[in-house]
Every structure is written in C-alpha cells, then in structure tokens.
Amino acid sequence: MSKYYSPAGGLPPQTHLTTERAIVKEAYTVIPKGVMTDIVTSTLPGFSNTRSWILARPISGFATTFSQLIVEIAPGGGAPRAEFEPGVEGVIFVTKGKVNLTLEGELHQLEEGGYAYLAAGDIWGLENVSDGVVTFQWIRKAYERLEGYEATSFVTSDAEVEPTAMPDTNGAWKTTRFTDSSDLAHDMQVNIVTFQPGGVIPFPETHVMEHGLYVLEGKAMYLLNNDWVEVEAGDFMWLRAFCPQACYAGGPGEFRYLLYKDMNRQIKLT
Questions:
Q1: Which of 91, 125, 134, 241 has a beta carbon 3.0–4.6 Å from 99's, enabling a disulfide?
Q2: What is the DSSP letter of 267?
C-alpha cells in the first residue's frame, strides 16, 4: 500500500448522504477526497488509457498562476508527449505505482515519491509499462523568464531530499525543498511540508503567494481565512493570494502535503 493518498474513483451508492466537506469561498476552496468520483474526471489530449481530476485552474479574481491535476494512467497508457503548450513548466509527483518518464530523449523510471521538474520548452512523455495503475500530481505554470536565468529539468524523489526543519520548531515542522528558494531561475516551488503530531504554523501566514495544497498523509486542522477546517489525506486546498493560513497537526501520525507556490518575481503593474 502506498504511503501517499491517491483517489480510487467509483461512485457513492444512492443511499449516500449528499452532505460533504466541499467549500468554495472568495479566499479559498476545499475539495475533499470524497469528490474524486468517476463522473468528475476529464480525459487529456495526447494521452491514452488515462483520466484526470482537475483540481485547480486560473480563475479571474482568485488564483491565476497555475493549474493542478491528479492524473491516473492505466497499464499500457500514457502520452509520448505530455505538454503541448509553449512556455509552460511543470512538476509531477508520483503518489501510486511507477511510470516511465522520457525527458529530452532520456528515460527515467519514477516510483512512488518520484519527483520531476520539467522546464518550459523541454519535450517529455509518460508511459505506464507496469501491471498496475499509476497516479501522480501534475502542477503546470506559465514560466516567467528572467534575464540571466533559466530553469533546467531534473528528476529526484521525496526519499532523496533531506527535509529542512523550520527555525525554532525542534523538527516538528519541516519542509522538503526540491529547489533552492533563493534560485531566481525558478519562479515557483512545489515542496512537501511535514508536521509531526502537535506541530503548528503558529501564526496566520498572509502573503502574496498563491497555494495549492494536496494532503499526502495524515490529518490536521487548517486555518483558511478565518475558518478552521479539518482536512485529511486526499483533500485539496486552494488559496488565493493573501489568504491567511495556519495549521495544527493533532496526530496520531505525520501530516504531510504537497505545496505549490509562485515566487521570485517582481509584481507586474503594466
């Protein structure tokens, strides 16, 4: 069994209560794991034997910088070329199974916890040559180039990158950063944030970065704007710029989520 949550699809029975935990507000959205049913999936151009749950897309007046998908590829499926839009960078993070990634002609096998940053303009594709389903998160963003800097593709994994403890937390709050925050070649980061039971974000963070948060493991209470919301593995949170956020991880196990944020660029005014 994978340590990272992946949806199984299906459809609730007719006896299932329609009451759910989905929330859509001006400053944030919560898409709970129970929403990830068969009837809300989308097919993707260029892919075979594949379905996706589209979690986020740019919306005027809300979050405008990125899209985020859960993609599920059945055995034998995939896409010889996955990204067709010019100037779009991406990150994939495998939550279940294993998949072959061909990046600029080089083959990489990504297993659970596998992570790839895919630079804008690079040609890459995916193929599921295993006997089981592969599921991954796919974050896409229009790359904002900066003179003198250029992001390059790389492949790594959750297991290969040592988490960094946040200051004065005694390891209760750690962040796995796959790129250096000060590297101006990157205009976004997709990190993994880990809280030990009892770990907290001890103040309401309020900042310019937009966020997509997919819960990989565990459960916690999360402050979104002025609402405390209980979330668990498989839930997705979508935060517009300046939405206050904080967290309390009550346990019993670790609380971990995949975090998108835009960064390292001046604000365009014209």
A1: 134
A2: P
> Cα separation of 134 and 47, whole Å?
13
Q: Measured between alpha carbons, how far is 178 from 190 in angstroms, rounded to an integer?
A: 7
Q: Cβ contacts of residue 1 below 8 Å, gap of 6+?
A: none
Strand 28-31 versus strand 48-56 pairing type: unpaired
pLDDT of residue 188: 98
> Do 116 and 154 contact (CB within 8 A), yes or no?
yes
Q: Which helix (DSSP H) or strand (DSSP E) does residue 190 occupy?
A: strand 188-195
Q: Are 189 and 263 in contact (CB under 8 A)?
A: yes
CA nearest 95: which of 182, 239, 217, 265? Answer: 217
pLDDT of residue 194: 98
Q: What are phi and psi of 22, to 5 degrees?
A: -65, 135
Taking 70 as the pLDDT cut, the residues of the chain under it are none
Question: What's the CA gap between 259 and 27, in Å, rounded?
Answer: 17
Using the 8-state DSSP alphabet, how is residue 63 labeled? -
215 close to 230: Cβ distance less than 8 angstroms: no
pLDDT score recorded for residue 206: 98
**In the chain, what is the straight-line distance between the N-terminal and C-terminal CA atoms, in Å?**
50
Domains of the chain: 23-262 (2.60.120.10)
- In this structure, are residues 75 and 132 in contact, taking their beta carbons and an 8 Å threshold? yes
**Residue 1: its pLDDT value, please?**
72
Measured over the CA atoms of residue 163, residue 166, residue 171 and residue 172, the dihedral's sign is negative
Give CA separation, 124 vs 79, 92, 104, 231, in Å. 9, 11, 6, 34
